[in-house]
Write a structure and sequence with these properties.
By secondary structure, this protein is mostly beta strands. It has a single domain, classed as Methylamine Dehydrogenase, Chain H (7 Propeller). The chain contains 3 helices and 26 strands. The strands form 6 sheets. Strands 1, 2, 3, 4, 5 and 9 form a 6-stranded mixed sheet that branches. A hairpin with a 6-residue loop joins strand 25 and strand 26. The chain starts with 8 loop residues before the first strand and ends with a helix.
């Protein structure tokens, strides 16, 4: 089924900036839910939008007030990004390193800004970064921040610990995950801190690893989300009961439902089209392209944002997507009765 997009409000300048961004990859809401950053892979820039999510009797609404287009010598083919805090952004360049940026203090008002990185992460042998893609940030104690990096073409996830009290200098680099991964193309952390989900492009699934002190490169996935197509963006809902997966090889976002945990193998509970067929076919340069790439759920857990080259930004009601899952469950229950 195709679900209805939220018709977001935006001025001509914002819509023009979206139209000109070119090929996109990941996108991410800031912790305070006021900014939305989009990776401009092809044009080597990051588009930061000032966003408001409103709730109303007819469902959530979205307003994009303005934008800021950021470039840097430390920005290349931007694939992944995540916020460390409301004003500090980590960016992964597929053709380079991971760079940390302090966003300009002023509000986005339609300008282009060239900025310098406050730190670049490259890792250390034998855990140097190689083709960094999607990333996830986890805040630790005593000013430490873990940056988890999908190294796309070496098929592994590395963990780099930086300390904000030391100007985000890296204090540790390690190989975190390897078993079962073939082109890790998306990563997400559960809100309860118990799970890491990693999209595995080559195996057409999402691997789930349980967070523990013994987690390491030889750890087997505890669960697998099957039939995910060519999975890219992946996100847990706020209650960790569902996982949404963007399928870059189709029009679909796949929805997986938890049974209280994420062990074992499971199929999508529902798949919904977030692109119309004409838009999808325009971007179908290969069998694993044309569909949604970046996917994020806003911090109020009410809207889903999706991006790809042919549709730079679209919003959907999370309740509509999950409502379809509940309808599917009820339908199965009726059939079994």
């Amino acid at each position: 089924m195709t679900i209805h997009q939220i018709d977001f409000k935006a001025g001509d300048a914002v819509r023009a900036a979206l139209a000109e961004i070119g090929r996109t990859e990941d996108l991410r809401f800031s912790p305070d839910n006021r900014l939305l950053a989009i990776a401009g892979y092809a044009r080597k820039r990051c588009l930061v939008l000032r966003v408001d999510v409103e709730t109303g009797p007819d469902g959530p609404g979205v307003t994009l007030h303005n934008f800021m287009e950021l470039t840097s010598d430390s920005m290349g083919e931007i694939h992944g990004l995540d916020f460390i805090n409301d004003r500090t952004l980590a960016i992964a360049n597929r053709d380079g390193l991971v760079a940390l940026f302090a966003l300009p203090r002023e509000e986005p008002v339609g300008q282009s800004r060239r900025i310098a990185a406050i730190r670049q992460l490259r890792g250390r042998q034998p855990h140097k970064l190689n083709s960094p893609g999607s990333i996830a940030v986890r805040l630790e104690s005593h000013g430490r921040v873990s940056v988890l990096v999908c190294n796309n073409y070496t098929h592994l996830v590395t963990r780099h610990v930086v300390n904000r009290w030391l100007g985000y200098r890296a204090t540790s680099n390690q190989l975190l995950l390897k078993r079962g991964l073939d082109i890790p193309d998306g990563i997400a952390l559960s809100h309860n801190g118990k799970w890491i989900a990693v999209s595995s492009h080559g195996t057409k699934d999402v691997k789930l690893y349980r967070m523990s002190g013994s987690l390491g490169p030889e750890s087997e996935p505890a669960g697998v989300l099957q039939n995910a197509g060519y999975p890219h963006g992946v996100r847990f809902t706020a209650d960790d009961r569902h996982i949404l997966v963007a399928d870059a090889g189709s029009q679909m976002v796949h929805v997986y439902a938890s049974d209280g945990g994420w062990k074992e193998r499971r199929e999508p509970a529902r798949s919904v089209a977030v692109l119309d067929e004409a838009t999808f076919l325009r971007g179908r340069a290969s069998f694993d392209e044309g569909g949604p790439k970046g996917l994020d759920i806003d911090r109020s857990n009410s809207i889903v944002a999706v991006t790809c080259e042919e549709q730079p930004l679209a919003f959907f009601s999370l309740s509509t997507i999950l409502g379809a899952v509940e309808d599917c469950r009820q339908g199965r229950a009726i059939a079994l009765a």
